[in-house]
Structure formats: structure tokens, C-alpha cells
Amino acid sequence: MPRTGFRGSLTSPKVDFIVDLGNPFLNLTADGFLKIGTVAATKTAVEETYGICKKGNISNHKFEHSLKKMCKEGAYWGTIAGVYVGMEYGMERIRGTRDWKNAMLGGALTGALVSAACNNNRDKIVMDTITGGAVATAAEFLNYIT
């Protein structure tokens, strides 16, 4: 009996680069900053382009505002990613093992640091600590599944 079916695969383009600062901790931190910062800047560029197209007009002022927003978002999310990657690497070095607990602790400490740096109150810092740990742990589990 003849069979019909569909088979295919979807692969994303992979762009990889190496950052060598002479120290594994610095290498990973800079790599995380650059990769996530680029993603955040690209996301902001797309959002701003959509906003400009929706309104139908563009000016130098709007272009400069969009560029500044891209830089701010890229630096903000890149910094958070750099701190997280550095914390996770530090946990791995301290504990001597590589597992999901490093991601949990790294995410929790990153959430606490970012929240405290934003001058949030104690309850908000605790909630951001829990959120950071939960999101990092979930991401680590999802990486093991796929």
C-alpha cells in the first residue's frame, strides 16, 4: 500500500563567535553579554520599526530615539545575561559539579542583584530572587529535554 507523509526539519541559523579574554569566567560573561545584548537590541529594532511603520512617518528624532532605545535594551539585557552566566559558572566552580542547581542558584542571585540595584523594596527583591531561580531552572530543564 502506498504511504504518504511529510518530513522536514527546521533549523535556525547559527552564528557563533569566540571571545577570548584569557579567563574562562570572563570569556563566558562577555559571550553571554554579547549574545543576549544582540538579541535584545534586535528585538527592540523590530518593535521600533513596527511602531514607525504603523504611524507611517519617520524623522531623525524618531530614528535617534529608536537607536538609543536599542542600545539601552541591549546593554540592560546583556548585563543581566552576563551576570547570570558568571554566577552560574561561579556556582559550578564552587560546587565542583555541573547540574540544574547551578542554574537555580545563579538565577536566584542574579534576580536578587538586579532587583536590589533597581532600589526595590525587600518583598520585591525576594519575589525577583524566586523568579530568577525558577526561570533559570526551567530553562535548564528544557535544555535537557530537547
Short description:
The chain has four helices and no strands.
Report the sheet-strand fraction: under 5%
**What is the terminal-to-terminal distance?**
34 Å
Question: How many strand segments?
Answer: 0
Q: Choose one word for the global shape.
A: globular
Could you state the order of secondary-structure elements as H and E?
HHHH
Rg (C-alpha, Å): 20 Å
Low-confidence stretches: none
Which oligomeric form is depicted? single chain
Structural class: mainly alpha
Helix content: over 70%
Separate helix tally: 4
Features:
146 residues; mainly alpha
What features would you describe in this structure?
There is one protein chain. It is built from four helices and no strands. It is mainly alpha-helical and 146 residues long. α2 (60-95) packs across α3 (100-117) and α3 (100-117) packs antiparallel against α4. The longest helix has 36 residues, at 60-95. It starts with 23 loop residues before the first helix and ends with a helix. 27% of the residues are buried. The mean pLDDT is 87.
Write the layout of secondary structure elements.
Elements: H1 24-55, H2 60-95, H3 100-117, H4 122-145
